[in-house]
Amino acid sequence: MKIVVDAMGGDYAPEVPVQGAVDALKDNQEISIILVGKTEEIKAQLEKYEYDQSRIEIVHAEEVIGFDEPPVMAIRKKKNSSIVVGMNLVKKGEADAFVSAGSTGAILVGGQVIVGRIKGVERAPLAPLIPTAKGPALLIDCGANVDARSSHLVQFAKMGSIYMERVVGVEKPRVAIVNIGAEEEKGNQLVKETYPLLKECKDIHFVGSIEARDIPKGDADVIVCEAFVGNVILKLYEGLSSTLISKIKQGLMSTLRSKIGALLIKPALKNTMKDFQTDEHGGAPLLGLKGLVVKTHGSSNAHDIKMGILQCVQFTREKINDQIKENLTVE
Amino acid sequence: MKIVVDAMGGDYAPEVPVQGAVDALKDNQEISIILVGKTEEIKAQLEKYEYDQSRIEIVHAEEVIGFDEPPVMAIRKKKNSSIVVGMNLVKKGEADAFVSAGSTGAILVGGQVIVGRIKGVERAPLAPLIPTAKGPALLIDCGANVDARSSHLVQFAKMGSIYMERVVGVEKPRVAIVNIGAEEEKGNQLVKETYPLLKECKDIHFVGSIEARDIPKGDADVIVCEAFVGNVILKLYEGLSSTLISKIKQGLMSTLRSKIGALLIKPALKNTMKDFQTDEHGGAPLLGLKGLVVKTHGSSNAHDIKMGILQCVQFTREKINDQIKENLTVE
Fold first, then answer.
1. Residues on chain A touching B241 (C-beta within 8 angstroms)
2. B79: number of Cβ within 10 Å
């Protein structure tokens, strides 16, 4: 199994992607890794570690796509960027998967344009795992293609179910559609059109509508919505958690008494909050492509990159793409 | 100034609405209150308190609209319900405002059908105040009418600005549209159509797009979105805060050490978290109607009801509806 890692992607490149790759090699004996990016910089990082040299290869890419570059233009113009070079390796079948902490927009565009969609897949959704009180749930779609149609959402539900069952290991994952009320007749035009289609779908376990309030409780495993709504949910999750936690920290530091208390609660709190962190769950897969593309957070640390890589192993081993092909072309 | 309070609305009716009304009377000498609902039950509650009897009146309403009744049907059929009777008092000009913790759906429908929209107002949005790190922000629209047009969103921005400036007291409120990126060209069809219209708008202080991640930080005072997205934001706010806080409590109770720490931090934490609570800010106004309708949370306590009532005073005193009329009919 061969996995390409974008050595130039993310806030802490190339240090962090290289370290994540080395760590992943140690954790899993089945894989080998291609680091794509500026050879000299990658070599300088690799020198810090001891690792099995036969399992790491460097493929040179002179350019880097920045976070603020318009994605379509960047993918078209920067043929020698780590993202384009890396994705081409997957396209040509020289690697199974591509992992990057780089520009989300460029990864989304590159995935569609370079790697390409599986025949029959209308749209390739970006599907991050978000933390809930009952473990991670898949939020599908959080990509950049908004104004989806109901047929897209049905495909998201199917692909998401396969992913949660086979990669994350959730048996009979509960699929729900994001809505503003629990009743079938509620919702906007898109939800009203999609609901009956999901209800009829035999190969998923559809549990109905989910209100945003119940997402953190863990009332569904696959949370289906169009990308605008998915983006709002994902980003509010990030923003609200960090604002609340900084409010709490501020409260803890406000008096001497509370400062002493803070020292006492720290270890216990750290343990509980860990369950509620996103980075334990690796990156977000871009589903429905001819190869696997995984996007990790721009601020990923080495652990996140490693988790993103290991996620690809399970994905490839379980032949998720063959299953997607089978399931989506039945109709 | 006369304010109608729905004595039968909310999870703790009639006890809590009656107590909230009595408390509001004590806090503000300008107002008198009409309690609408089952006379005998209201009287039994009123007996508990001492208050200026000349400023409270009871108007009998035999029926109650439940939380799970289909709203349109309920408003049409239950002519003697507290919501319908109360709203009719506003419609006939016998009162300035109506406050209820009852069924959101019924209040939204009743507001449009009974009280009616101001001429020129295309849609009456429900606009709750949500907590942010920099104080409350108005989230407009969180109502039940989804699939909005860009002209609706422009009116929301104008009405929201007037409300934040005159009722909440925010000078030159910053208006932003919820989007999935900061750039003008980003967004779904609706946002792309609305953005340039808001930019041209002279009577608001438009600051551009806001990503959901930045809402809790307090980057805008008036947050414009269509009702589906508004509902998702509002309910995720509620759900995520409560899940996070219960996770934290669970962590605090997990060891003896952390239990002792919890006792020490409690007072300080309570104070800081207070800034981040919704109930300090009263209820959500339904804007653009010929009278004021305020919806408070179904689980409102007496303090919430009182705040909802006092909010009406400021609204009426500042002649918000005259300003809305002026501003929306200029075009």
1. 240, 244
2. 12
